[in-house]
User: Which sequence fits this backbone?
């Protein structure tokens, strides 16, 4: 088991290195001279000044040297400075994580709470009308992107009914109830697809589990259906659910960009978009690497959780 | 449609009718929608009476902004008094071109690389899959945003190529997984035993058997790609205006949402229906295939 973890960790570091290099390559090789973002075009007549700024930002060094420097700083938590606001990229990221983090956590909690009962009912009555309605509904929900669901929720719950604010964010430190009001609609918009994904997984997993011998023996002991469903059958499915939640983090991260834009939330995705529109390449690079890092680390953690929970994998190794 | 038909009679029907007869009614509806939307996108210029998608009538005293659905404009007009139906039809071109490019590049390049490394294994396999893993380590939309921004130009060719390129890795994975199991089947062993060249085995035995799975995956993948382009367009980073795209239309509708919801409703419905249809038909094809291979 120790060697398994060691291999995973080596792979994790290798992937992170490759991801950061790829991002650096993308940002630095593609058209668009960074000097245009640093100095306004009119000021570029002054050749001496341009040369000085180039040297200051290390734009004359070969790319590998610049990558080395950037990586050295990045390891120590310094992702450089924003070209536009000259604030440290890392502190900008730290400032925005709570918003995006909360949004994602609330979304996953909402989705799991809705998906598990739906998936269980669907599997328990496999092939019935109820199953058909739930499965059909899940297939439909999979086709509704976050921005369509979000706009619908804004129109109905904010504009027509006035139950929630349409846009904006209240920090949890300012007001807990205000925070809940601002997180509900964005999280619900992201949940539409997530619920469908999770419910499908729970259903298909449970359908197989319910055909196992140990379920039959539990039934023949005369245990109640509800007890069997939640105590015996759902437990192994929870593993699959953890994996799917982990794998889906990438999709969810993309979703938060869209939803933060729609609801004007001051999260990481919104910051990435702003940086993109301002051509703030240090910020784009920093956030992209950070997001990819979170994604890779979460997936490795999911693998490790799997290892701890399911002893069969340990033996197989 | 489970009415019993004499098998002899059924067999004499043309294959397309036999195929359709197996579809549940929802899937028939979805397939019809896909045919309609593809035809509309391809023949948009030839549809009689379809307005110019960029014609702003109110500038010429011809029509108003934010008209509701009516006889002159079936789906109404947007806040620039452009015909919504025409913009949806031309917007379908963007979505479908991007989806087609992604499927094409995915099946051709991803299918080839995946089959190759799944068949030969070894160093090539671990190298290619390492690259694939790194690209897949980026959340799709974030990588797409970064690449599209850095490229600077945003016409249909650029968008379709970038999205197409990014869809090669997932196809590579699917193809490799299939090629791995196919390479262990008897007919491949037999081909090896009679001394067939490796390249011939790859092209004659492995790839033809990987292809059906890839095509079933392509349907579902096309749905994902259309959602991705929609999100990109909604953020204002897909094809440059005034070219219409469904996501762009939904984004633009937010301004006057209080006054007029129709410009938000129509493109959203078009998007959701198209994606749902692709998912539904794709799932049905996959079920059909698994039933068939289970019967073998």
Assistant:
């Amino acid at each position: 088991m120790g060697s398994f973890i060691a291999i995973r960790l080596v792979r994790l570091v290798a992937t992170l290195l490759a991801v950061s290099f790829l991002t650096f390559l993308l940002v630095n090789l593609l058209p668009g001279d960074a000097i245009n973002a640093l100095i306004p075009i009119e000021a570029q007549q002054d050749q001496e000044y341009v040369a000085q700024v180039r040297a200051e930002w290390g734009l004359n060094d070969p790319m590998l040297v610049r990558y080395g420097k950037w990586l050295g700083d990045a390891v120590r938590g310094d992702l450089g400075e924003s070209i536009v606001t000259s604030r440290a990229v890392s502190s900008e990221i730290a400032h925005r994580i709570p918003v995006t983090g909360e949004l994602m956590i609330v979304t996953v909690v909402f989705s799991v709470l809705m998906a598990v009962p739906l998936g269980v009912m669907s599997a328990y009555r496999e092939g019935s009308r109820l199953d058909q309605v739930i499965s059909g509904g899940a297939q439909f929900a999979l086709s509704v992107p976050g921005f369509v669901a979000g706009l619908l929720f804004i129109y109905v719950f904010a504009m027509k009914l006035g139950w929630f604010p349409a846009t904006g964010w209240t920090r949890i430190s300012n007001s807990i109830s205000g925070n809940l009001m601002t997180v509900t609609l964005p999280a619900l918009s992201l949940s539409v697809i997530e619920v469908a994904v999770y419910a499908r997984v729970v259903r298909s997993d449970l359908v197989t589990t319910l055909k196992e011998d140990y379920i039959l023996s539990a039934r023949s002991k005369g245990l109640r259906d509800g007890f069997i469903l939640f105590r015996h059958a759902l437990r192994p499915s929870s593993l699959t659910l953890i994996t799917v939640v982990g794998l889906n983090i990438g999709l969810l991260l993309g979703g938060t960009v869209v939803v933060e834009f729609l609801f004007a939330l001051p999260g990481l995705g919104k910051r990435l978009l702003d940086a993109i529109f301002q051509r703030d390449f240090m910020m784009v690079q920093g956030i992209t690497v950070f997001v990819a890092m979170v994604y890779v680390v979460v997936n490795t953690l999911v693998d490790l959780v799997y290892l701890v929970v399911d002893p069969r994998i340990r033996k197989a190794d | 449609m489970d009415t019993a038909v004499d098998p002899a009679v059924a067999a004499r029907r043309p294959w397309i009718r036999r195929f359709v007869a197996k579809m549940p009614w929802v899937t028939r509806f979805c397939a019809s929608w896909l045919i309609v939307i593809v035809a509309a996108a391809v023949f948009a210029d030839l549809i009689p009476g379809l307005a110019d998608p960029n014609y702003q009538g109110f500038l010429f005293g011809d029509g108003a902004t934010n008209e509701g659905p009516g006889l002159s404009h079936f789906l109404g007009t947007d806040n620039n008094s452009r015909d919504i139906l025409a913009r949806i039809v031309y917007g379908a071109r963007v979505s479908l071109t991007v989806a087609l490019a992604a499927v094409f590049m995915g099946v051709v390049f991803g299918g080839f690389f995946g089959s190759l490394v799944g068949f030969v294994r070894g160093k090539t396999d671990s190298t290619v899959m390492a690259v694939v893993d790194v690209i897949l380590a980026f959340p799709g939309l974030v990588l797409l945003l970064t690449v599209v921004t850095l490229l600077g130009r945003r016409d249909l060719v650029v968008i379709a190529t970038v999205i197409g390129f990014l869809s090669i890795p997932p196809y590579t994975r699917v193809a490799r997984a299939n090629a791995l199991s196919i390479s262990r089947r008897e007919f491949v062993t037999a081909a090896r035993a009679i001394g067939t060249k490796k390249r011939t085995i790859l092209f004659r035995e492995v790839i033809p058997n990987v292809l059906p799975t890839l095509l079933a995956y392509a349907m579902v993948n096309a749905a994902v790609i259309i959602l991705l382009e929609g999100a990109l367009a909604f953020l204002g980073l897909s094809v440059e205006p005034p070219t219409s795209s469904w996501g762009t239309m939904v984004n633009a509708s937010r301004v006057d949402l209080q006054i007029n919801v129709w410009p938000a409703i129509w493109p959203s419905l078009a998007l959701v229906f198209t994606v749902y249809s692709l998912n539904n038909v794709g799932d049905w094809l996959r079920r059909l295939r698994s039933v068939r291979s289970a019967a073998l």
